[in-house]
Design a protein that fits this description.
With 307 residues, the protein is α/β, with parallel strands linked by helices. The chain contains nine helices and 14 strands.
């Protein structure tokens, strides 16, 4: 395969990418042309969000070409659509054949959440590093099979670890659980495997709802997954929301209202420097405090007062 590499300024990068996609290239990426030099400029946004600036001062726009598209033909079409001749700013480079499935799988190893809980991609079922099930009876590890997919949540992020560790340490058999912002369903599945009663997962993304349904069935547990509009009235013994600080602050009244009297609220997706601000948003209903921190992230927990 071949890539067409074009040099362009910050103000042209996004429009050029859109035109190339319209012209039928397989994919487009934008790289910092100054990468590796003293002029390299990082782009930052809030974790999980988008940076304010979508390109660098000097950019390489890299378009992956279909086998039947010639670079000179594409450059001519690009000039017709953009009004600019890029032929002097373009190079073509070969892309080595790669087993993308094997490469992707190599990036996801079994994850030990606690001594009891492991997240195991399907291709690691026979991995000797993963403890076996069936030897220790009640002390058997909980192995959750979860493959990376379109929905957020592979178990590798510190906030997922924190929420899962809280569930392992505190969830009592039969308690009802709401996983708000369920993503792949990983926390809902962990709760179910730990012996929770009714478990519900909610996400604003239809793909996440489908992913949670699939992963729950694949792990042999019952989780009711839905969009926010599909969430039935009622409260839960445990409500866990692993999202980000800004939506957590907006959702404070609703999430607190979903916690049963005497129930527990667990929040993560919060940086250490954001903990006090998030806790203040929940203070009118539930007093939240830091339960544990990990790699700059925190897990907040609180108990709703009895009526």
């Amino acid at each position: 395969m071949r890539e067409l590499v074009l040099s362009c300024s910050e103000d042209r990068a996004e429009a050029l990418s859109d035109i190339l996609l319209d012209l039928g290239v397989l994919s487009v990426s934008v790289e910092d042309a100054d990468s590796g030099t003293e002029h390299e400029t990082p782009l930052f946004g809030e974790p999980g969000g988008e940076p304010d600036v979508q390109a660098w001062h000097h950019n390489r726009v890299v378009a992956l070409l279909p086998d039947d598209v010639q670079a000179d033909v594409l450059l001519h079409a690009l000039e017709q659509h953009s009004g600019q001749d890029y032929s002097g700013l373009a190079t073509v480079r070969e892309v080595a054949d790669t087993d993308w499935v094997r490469l992707t799988q190599s990036q996801f190893a079994p994850i030990c959440i606690t001594d009891q809980i492991w997240i195991v991609p399907s291709w690691h079922r026979e991995n000797p590093q993963v403890p076996s099930v069936g030897a220790d009876g009640d002390n058997d590890p909980i192995l959750i099979e979860l493959d990376p997919g379109l929905a957020f949540g592979t178990g590798s992020h510190p906030t997922t670890h924190l929420c899962a560790q809280w569930l392992a340490a505190n969830l009592q058999p039969g308690q009802t659980v709401l996983d708000y912002g369920c993503g792949s369903g990983i926390l809902a599945i962990i709760a179910a495997r730990l012996g929770a009663g009714e478990v519900t997962g909610v996400d604003i993304d239809e793909q996440a709802v489908q992913s949670t349904d699939y992963n729950a069935q694949n792990n042999g547990v019952q989780v009711t997954a839905c969009l926010p509009d599909g969430l039935q009235a009622g409260a839960f013994d445990i409500v866990v929301a692993n999202i980000l600080s800004n939506p957590l602050k907006v959702l404070a009244p609703m999430l607190c209202g979903r916690v049963s009297p005497g129930g527990r609220l667990i929040l993560s997706g919060v940086l250490e420097r954001q903990a006090q601000e998030v806790a203040a948003a929940y203070a009118p209903w539930i007093e939240m405090s830091v339960w544990r921190s990990h790699e700059g992230w925190v897990c907040l927990s609180g108990t709703r007062e009895q009526a």
